[in-house]
Amino acid sequence: MVICLLTGLLISCKQNANVKHSPKDNIVIAIIPKVDNEIFDQVKESAIKAGKELGITITWEAPTSNDGKKQVELIENLIQYKVDGILISCNDAELLKEPIDRAIKAGIKVGTFDSDCPKSNRIFYVGTDNKEAGIICAQTMLKLLAKNKNQNKKIIILSSGPNAENMKERLNGFRSVINQNSIENILFAFEMSDYGKDLLTLSLKKPKKIDGIQMLWGLPVLKGVDSIPALSRFMNKGGVSVFFDVSKPLLKYIKEHPNCATMKQDFHSMGYDGVTNMYNAIMDKSYQMQILYKVRVIDQLNAEEELKKL
Questions:
Q1: Within 10 A of 17 (CB to CB), how many other CB atoms are there?
Q2: Can 2-128+266-293 and 130-265+298-307 be said to share one CATH topology?
Q3: What angle is formed at CA 265 by the lines to CA 273 and CA 44, rounded to 5 degrees?
Q4: Model-level pTM?
Q5: Strand boundaries in the chain, DSSP class E
């Protein structure tokens, strides 16, 4: 099969012999994450589950770097292979607009998840309500700062990149609540976890007083706050941090520390609902143009509860 030439992991989800075949056989939906990391593993898992239930093929097309051009190349390849649908989390909304539109023009259904490309002709977006998430981050930050009686309220923000739509929306939401004078610096790590750790370390070594760290992109701390010694020292001295996403090491840390919290996204629903919604669009059935999920604040009070779910 020509589809076996696709660059990513190919998972064939065959129908049970007792299940009737759909009018359109051999449906292939390609999923393009920003990068291949542990966060998107949850999307992959639930997308494969949905594919098996629907009796279709799901192919996971992870770019080899965080450069938006790699995602452009993947879309161009998928156009050549004539897949039925593409579900993509966009690294660079501006750069990906034209290739997404070319795929649509070629007859491929394209939807976005996690990070949108709203100026394109994509048919739907499924993912976190990112502006609201930014607002919730800011509200959580203010509560923690007030609880710790921090006076200066100077905050450093860590983002994955300046061109990803989800980061833009989270930052806009955060800024709509927080006084602009409180934002000391905005750091962009471009989806590189080690680089994000280095940026935080360098910023915390500066003599200027910092009270809060807001991570709109949470990958650098998923292996634990202690994996960034400068951040650990900052927290031990009474600093406040609001993280993004969850992992066992991070939740264990939050359980023991009252001066931090994180935001939990629903990645499993993104993958499952994204594939199901795309399938409906391909089959000319009713589908939703937008599916939004709220983040859940995880702090010392409910971290143990969340740990039991992992």
A1: 5
A2: yes
A3: 50
A4: 0.90
A5: 9-12, 28-32, 57-60, 85-88, 109-113, 124-128, 155-159, 183-188, 212-215, 240-244, 260-264, 290-293, 296-298
Burial class (CB in 10 A: 0-12, 13-18, 19+), 117: buried
The mean pLDDT value of the chain amounts to 91
Q: Which CATH architecture has domain 130-265+298-307?
A: 3-Layer(aba) Sandwich (3.40)
Percent residues over pLDDT 70 in the chain: 91
For the cut 90, the answer to whether the pLDDT of residue 290 exceeds it is yes
- Alpha-helical regions (H) of 8-129: 38-54, 68-81, 93-105
Q: What is the pLDDT of residues 71-115, one digit of tens each?
A: 999 999 999 999 999 999 999 999 999 999 999 999 999 999 999
The answer to whether residues 290 and 124 touch, using CB atoms and an 8 Å cutoff, is yes
Query: How far from the centroid of its chain's Cα atoms is residue 96's Cα?
Result: 17
Query: At 255, is the pLDDT very low, low, confident or very high (cuts 50, 70, 90)?
Result: very high
pLDDT classification of 20: cutoffs 50, 70, 90: very low
Helix (H/G/I), strand (E/B), else coil: 140: helix
Residues 6 or more apart whose Cβ sits within 8 Å of residue 236: none
Cα–Cα dist 291/269, whole Å: 10
Instruction: Give the position of tokens 């993104």.
Output: 270
Residue found by looking up tokens 């998923």 in the block: 222
Instruction: Provide the token pair at 266.
Output: 């629903």
Q: At what angle do helices 229-236 and 193-205 cross, to 10 degrees?
A: 50
- Indicate the pairing of strand 296-298 with strand 260-264: antiparallel
Q: Determine the Cα–Cα distance for residues 85 and 111; give it in Å rounded to an integer.
A: 8
* Residue ranges of domains in the chain: 2-128+266-293, 130-265+298-307
Cα Rg, the chain, nearest whole Å = 20
